């Protein structure tokens, strides 16, 4: 079904995909979704688990690399203080969900931007709610033309 939408130009990325409980079944489908993204040459947005986030984030990036996905085509979303350094060090985009009452609040996000500012700040995409995809994906010369126009451009 995704391939049919892709042919019509309606699919701009695969995601949000990833782990919750980090089970074998989740791993099977995460890999299948990454293979689809790779085969269709689409960027990926990866969900990081709420529990055991650090291990799940590392595992997600390991699997992306095992599947031949270029880290610069992947947003690792829902980062926090314990995951952002590895995400950036490995060349992935770092997404953050800002929900002041329940998750990452404004003050925590500002502290992370201060700590990882400079060059790294252009690899960080804070966002709220369902508008994340539109605000996160950078324009890239080698992405298919049909997807480039749907993303907001920002540079690294």
Description:
By secondary structure, the chain is α/β, with parallel strands linked by helices. It is built from seven helices and five strands, in the order αβαβαβαβαβαα. Strands 1-2-3-4-5 form a five-stranded parallel sheet. The chain is globular, with a radius of gyration of 15 Å.
Strand order of the largest sheet: 1-2-3-4-5
In helices, the fraction of residues equals: 25-40%
In N-to-C order, the SSE pattern is: HEHEHEHEHEHH
Main sheet attributes: strand count, strand direction, barrel closure: 5 strands, parallel
**Number of helical stretches of at least 4 residues:** 7
Strand content: 5-15%
* Morphology: globular
Overall mean pLDDT score?
A: 78
**What is the strand tally?**
5
- Taking the alpha carbons of the first and last residues, their distance comes to 33 Å
**Poorly predicted tracts of residues:** 130-156
- Computed Rg: 15 Å
